[in-house]
Design brief:
- By secondary structure, the protein is an alpha+beta fold.
- The protein folds into four domains: 53-66 and 336-412, conserved putative lor/sdh protein from methanococcus maripaludis s2 fold (Beta Barrel), CATH 2.40.420.20; 72-83 and 251-326, Elongation Factor Tu (Ef-tu), domain 3 (Beta Barrel); 89-116 and 208-247, RNA polymerase II/Efflux pump adaptor protein, barrel-sandwich hybrid domain (OB fold (Dihydrolipoamide Acetyltransferase, E2P)); 119-206.
- Helices cover 29% and strands 34% of the residues.
- It has helices spanning 2-11, 24-48, 119-161, 167-206, and strands spanning 53-59, 61-62, 72-82, 85-88, 94-99, 106-107, 112-116, 209-211, 216-221, 228-229, 239-240, 244-247, 252-259, 271-276, 279-296, 301-308, 320-326, 340-343, 348-350, 353-359, 365-369, 371-376, 379-384, 391-394, 406-408.
- The chain has a six-stranded antiparallel barrel. The protein has a five-stranded mixed beta sheet with strand order 8-7-5-10-11, with no helix packed on it.
- Strand 20 and strand 21 (365-369) form a beta hairpin.
- The longest helix is centred in the middle third of the chain and has 43 residues, at 119-161.
- The radius of gyration is 50 Å and the shape is rod-shaped.
């Protein structure tokens, strides 16, 4: 019994003894677990972060951006063309003797551009001149004979009345006189024919000289001395059909092809603004001349002729241009158009309202409801909600929301 009591005493907890601390290995396990938890939380936040969308932007502009106080209702592209342009050729087939033009040279109306070898034409003219001389000399001989015959007939007329000569002699004299008159008339007619033949021969000689049909600038030189030229394409590739090409620079205008869906916006006498591709900072005023009353079924376009109101040597045929068709200028004293203009691609529908996403300083966007006005070509008039100098997002994707951070496409280039 005493032995059992002693054993129970040994099993009693000694509460006066100090508590034992955790082992070093157990403390390191808790540290590792805490670090792992922190890493998992950080990874979850990084993976759950929404990536920034890359977008294009455009500035908000004032309504009058064309320098004329009016807004563009349609933009189109076209080319500079010349209403008066000619490839000058000879009227006859011949060998070129001399070419007197060079590219870029200005010629006046009637100025000699080239000459052909006139040997055949000169020979024909010499023959016609000789024939005319022979016809005229024949007229002189017949006139002398006719004078003698008329005098003879007059003498016999007085003698036959006195019965000093027979009637038959008088009749023969009258017949000879009338015959000479007929021969003289024929000779005179032959002389007129010979004179006309000489005039034709002179034209043949003149046809060997190629002259400018109007004043202009030479844009192409097509023939050289020694080559054969012809108004027809005779002789295949060995025959030239022209001497050179000249353009009347005062007749330059612009041809624009406008889509059928937008041709209703274009009216005759409508003001336009022309920008040459070669000089993008130079804005040339113009005016619609005419709308060609036919369409191109293949391209679904209608051709529009536009006049250039400024003549300048920098404008040359076949240059590419961009044309902005403008609203007609408002009368003096009329208030400036309200609102601002932005690209139409910046306006989208959100919750049934027209909305633009405005770029903030920290590259976040703010969804801004706007009130839109007229359509100005590819742009849109905004009456309220935006101000000049702000930047808006173009073609905002459906995933873009208010407050989202974006990346600028221009910054990546």
């Amino acid at each position: 019994m005493n032995a059992s009591a002693e054993l129970l005493k040994e099993l009693r907890i000694d509460r006066s003894a100090p508590p034992r601390g955790p082992s070093p290995s157990r403390r390191w396990w808790w540290v590792v677990a805490g670090l792992a938890l922190l890493l998992a939380l950080a990874a979850g936040m990084w993976l759950g972060r929404k990536p920034a969308l890359t977008v294009d932007t455009a500035p908000v502009l004032a309504m009058a951006q064309n320098g004329s106080g009016t807004a563009s209702v349609l933009d189109a592209s076209g080319y500079v063309v010349a209403r008066r342009m000619a490839t000058v050729s000879a009227k006859i087939t011949g060998k070129v003797r001399e070419v007197m033009i060079e590219e870029g040279m200005r010629v006046e109306e009637g100025q000699v551009m080239a000459t052909l070898d006139p040997i055949d034409a000169n020979a024909q003219r010499s023959l016609s001149a000789a024939q005319l001389s022979a016809a005229r000399s024949q007229i002189g001989g017949l006139q002398a004979q006719l004078r003698q015959s008329e005098a003879e007939a007059m003498r016999l007329h007085s003698l036959v009345g006195q019965q000093l000569v027979s009637r038959s002699q008088y009749d023969q004299a009258v017949a000879a006189r009338d015959s000479l008159r007929a021969q003289l008339a024929t000779a005179r007619h032959n002389a007129e024919v010979a004179r006309d033949a000489l005039a034709i021969a002179d034209l043949g000689v003149d046809n060997n000289i190629v002259r400018a049909p109007f004043s202009g600038v030479v844009t192409a030189k097509a023939a050289q001395p020694g080559e054969i030229v012809s108004p027809l394409s005779a002789g295949g590739g060995f025959t030239r059909t022209g001497i050179g090409t000249i353009v009347d620079m005062d007749s330059l205008e612009v041809e624009v092809e406008v889509g059928e869906a937008f041709i209703g916006r274009v009216q005759p006498k409508m003001p336009v603004e022309i920008v040459l591709n070669a000089y993008p900072d130079w804005k040339i005023p113009g005016e619609v001349i005419a709308i060609i009353p036919t369409a191109d079924r293949g391209k679904a376009t209608v051709k529009v002729r536009v006049a250039l109101k400024v003549k300048d040597p920098r404008v040359v045929p076949e240059m590419g241009v961009r044309v902005s068709f403008l609203e007609k200028a408002a009368p003096a004293g009329t208030a400036a158009p309200k609102g601002v203009r932005v690209p139409g691609a910046a306006i989208v529908q959100r919750d049934g309202k027209p909305t633009a996403f405005v770029l903030q300083a920290d590259n976040t966007v703010r969804a801004q409801a706007v009130q839109t006005g007229a359509t100005l070509g590819k742009d849109k008039q905004v009456l309220s909600g935006l101000g000049v100098g702000q930047t808006v997002v173009l073609d905002p994707p459906d995933a873009l929301k208010d407050g989202d951070k974006v990346a600028l496409a221009d910054a990546d280039k």
